[in-house]
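Subgroup meeting minutes
Present: P.N., E.W., G.H.
Scribe: E.W.

1. P.N. recapped why we're keeping a running log of single-chain structure predictions: easier to compare across weeks, and new members can see raw inputs and outputs side by side.
2. G.H. added today's entry (50 aa).
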Amino acid sequence: MNDPRERPVVTEANKEGVRAGHTGDGLRYVLIASCALVVLGFIGVALFVK
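Output recorded in log:
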């Protein structure tokens, strides 16, 4: 059985794959949404300041 809390054995063959990790599946959507909100925020500030 593979225990998810068990640390992987790092060898020269799998060193890069072990260090790469996983950032999450929804990361790109969070990035897109946050960039869109920043743009909308700038537009809102520009309209408010005028």
